[in-house]
């Protein structure tokens, strides 16, 4: 009789529930998915902390970071508050940011209520018109306002000839705040409008049953429920106003009005002997104020649950009829859009095709293409356009890929530090653009082996700085889409033997492709409009459209500035239109398949 020996089945690894042996090496005892987790955490942390840590170190160092032998000191903060005339700068900044916030809400809240919750004539047209800031930066809007409403602007000259005086002054803190508020009001409008569209109309119906009229419903029910989006948008507008450079620079510089951003600009980039210690101290102060604003926002919205009006059985909101006041509301929004956006931007576009733009002489007599010819005749100007497109394209891809990886680690993994990845990805929201530029400037100077010298002043430096600014937007664009994907898909892939990386490539990656495309479009437009980090990171060979426009404006070439602004808007509109068409065709192709 023959006895056949039966070999014992190999013991299944604990990490493989279906008995498949691991097919990948495990360096340092970690699976490849854990290596991916840590890699994403490290990259996101470097993106976020790179501009912050050097800024903090420089603020307490007695010499620039690139010089050896520095000592710890608090003298930079002492000199900031005693010798740099910073008290007036702080006062100007507070007035500018506070007034901008108040005006932005004064524009945005009534417009959101009128468009979304009342029977407003032309409501859809007005809703579409409020999307214009997606294509226009406040720098371009500021140029447009000066072209039309500045001391020598087309409208100002016409009004002076008509009534003998100009009843406004753009070159003042109220003038700066009004222009910035017009640019930022649509941001607050979006938050308030979205909240109103999701609200439950049962509360309004209850008020009407109790005898409340349309106006009473608006002031007693609708507007009080807007407190969370109002608080959020107010803090956001205030934070943006603290760091904005464009309007304060082109309005305040001629009359000597300095705010935080222009203080850093004049005492850093444009100073013959920059005081890096004072710059570091001022940067830390601005960063601290922005972080405090975010913390205040979180504190104020801590009990936001009591404002919730969207429930499982919510009814569709019905538009209120406010009678003749609807025409007042329509006129209010029309004045905002026409005088705040259409006239300045139209005037800027018209200025790009004229030699002289003044009501004293018909602009039709001075029509010319000289401004555009000048742009395309000088290599430095055309190079800045090319640089902007390259930076926007490369930066959009880089940021979107990183954002997808960060979202997957933060929301679709078991990584114990996943929440940290999310916090780090959103942290640049509290970093002013000019601080990112200064911080990256010092970070590159601090790199060993001369690596900083190879990066500083190149397009790579500009791409990194702009990508830091765009990361929160890309993360916020992709994260909601992952929340709509059921976790059972992950579980099914894991049961089939796939690890986290295989699950992403085979299942989740395809499902988040539309969100990835949306993030690409969003970040491309954001980066194309960006300019403030490049003020400290770019060189003559790596300037972008925004920095070139600032240089042309200082030289007095307003026609070339107008031409450059029109080209930037045209590039943005063309890209958004083409990308939207491609995404629509792709979606239709998937549906037909």
Please, could you describe this protein's structure?
- With 593 residues, the protein is mainly alpha-helical.
- The protein has a domain at 29-60 and 390-545: MetI-like (MetI-like fold, Orthogonal Bundle), CATH 1.10.3720.
- The chain is built from 27 helices and no strands.
- Helix 26 (545-554) packs antiparallel against helix 27 (558-592).
- It starts with 31 loop residues before the first helix and ends with a helix.
- Mean pLDDT is 80; it is low at 1-22 and 304-314.
Helix-strand blueprint:
Blueprint: H1 32-49, H2 52-59, H3 75-82, H4 86-117, H5 123-129, H6 138-149, H7 154-163, H8 173-198, H9 202-209, H10 214-222, H11 227-243, H12 246-252, H13 260-269, H14 276-300, H15 325-351, H16 370-377, H17 379-411, H18 418-426, H19 433-446, H20 451-455, H21 459-483, H22 488-495, H23 500-511, H24 513-529, H25 534-537, H26 545-554, H27 558-592
Helix pairs in contact: 1-17, 1-18, 2-14, 2-19, 3-14, 4-8, 4-11, 4-15, 6-8, 6-12, 6-15, 6-27, 8-11, 8-12, 9-10, 11-14, 13-14, 15-27, 16-27, 17-18, 17-21, 17-24, 19-21, 21-24, 22-23, 24-27, 26-27
């Amino acid at each position: 009789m023959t006895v056949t020996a039966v070999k014992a089945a190999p013991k299944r690894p604990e990490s493989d529930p279906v008995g498949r042996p691991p097919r990948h090496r495990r360096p340092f005892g970690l699976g490849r998915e854990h290596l991916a987790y840590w890699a994403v955490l490290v990259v996101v942390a470097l993106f976020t902390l790179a501009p912050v840590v050097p800024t903090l170190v420089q603020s307490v160092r007695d010499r620039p970071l690139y010089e050896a032998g520095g000592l710890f000191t608090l003298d930079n903060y002492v000199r900031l508050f005693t010798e740099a005339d910073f008290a007036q700068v702080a006062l100007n900044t507070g007035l500018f940011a506070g007034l901008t916030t108040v005006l932005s809400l004064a524009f945005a809240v009534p417009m959101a209520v009128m468009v979304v919750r009342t029977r407003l004539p032309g409501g859809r047209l007005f809703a579409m018109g409020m999307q214009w800031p997606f294509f226009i930066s406040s720098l371009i809007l500021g140029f447009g306002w000066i072209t039309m409403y500045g001391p020598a602007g087309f409208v100002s000259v016409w009004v002076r000839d008509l009534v003998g005086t100009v009843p406004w002054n753009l070159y003042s803190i109220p003038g700066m705040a009004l222009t910035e508020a017009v640019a930022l009001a649509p941001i607050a409008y979006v938050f308030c409008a979205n909240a109103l569209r999701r609200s439950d109309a049962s509360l309004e119906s209850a008020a009407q049953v109790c005898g409340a009229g349309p106006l009473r419903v608006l002031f007693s029910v609708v507007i009080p429920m807007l407190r969370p989006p109002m608080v959020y948008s107010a803090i956001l507008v205030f934070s943006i106003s603290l760091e904005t450079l464009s309007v304060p620079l082109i309005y305040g510089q001629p009359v000597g009005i300095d705010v935080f951003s222009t203080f850093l600009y004049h005492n850093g980039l444009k100073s013959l002997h920059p005081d890096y210690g004072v710059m570091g101290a001022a940067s830390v102060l601005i960063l601290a104020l922005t972080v405090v604003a975010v913390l205040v926002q979180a504190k104020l919205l801590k009990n936001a649950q009591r404002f919730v009006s969207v429930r499982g059985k919510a009814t569709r909101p019905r538009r209120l009829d406010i009678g003749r006041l609807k025409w007042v509301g329509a006129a209010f929004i029309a004045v905002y859009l026409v005088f705040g956006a259409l006239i300045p931007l139209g005037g800027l576009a018209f200025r790009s095709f004229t030699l002289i733009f003044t009501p004293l002489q018909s602009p039709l007599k001075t029509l010319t293409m000289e401004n555009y010819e000048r742009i395309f005749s000088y290599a430095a100007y055309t190079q800045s356009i090319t640089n902007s497109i390259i930076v926007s394209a490369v930066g959009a891809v880089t940021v979107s890929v990183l954002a997808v990886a960060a979202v997957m680690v933060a929301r679709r993994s078991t990584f114990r530090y996943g929440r940290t990845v999310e916090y780090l990805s959103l942290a640049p929201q509290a970093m002013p653009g000019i601080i990112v530029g200064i911080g990256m400037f010092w970070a590159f100077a601090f790199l060993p082996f001369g690596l900083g010298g190879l990066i500083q002043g190149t397009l790579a430096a500009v791409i990194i700085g702009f990508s830091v600014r765009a990361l929160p937007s890309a993360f916020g664009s992709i994260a909601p889409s992952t929340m709509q994907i059921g976790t059972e898909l992950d579980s099914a892939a894991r049961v089939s033997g796939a690890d986290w990386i295989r699950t992403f490539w085979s299942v989740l990656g395809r499902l988040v492709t539309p969100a990835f495309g949306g993030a690409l479009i969003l970040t491309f437009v954001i980066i194309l409009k960006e300019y403030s980090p490049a003020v400290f990171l770019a060189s003559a060979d790596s300037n972008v459209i925004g920095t070139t426009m600032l240089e042309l404006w200082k030289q007095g070439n307003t026609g070339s500035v107008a031409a450059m602004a029109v080209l930037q808007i045209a590039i943005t509109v063309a890209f958004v239109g083409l990308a939207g068409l491609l995404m629509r065709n792709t979606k239709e192709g998937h549906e037909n398949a």
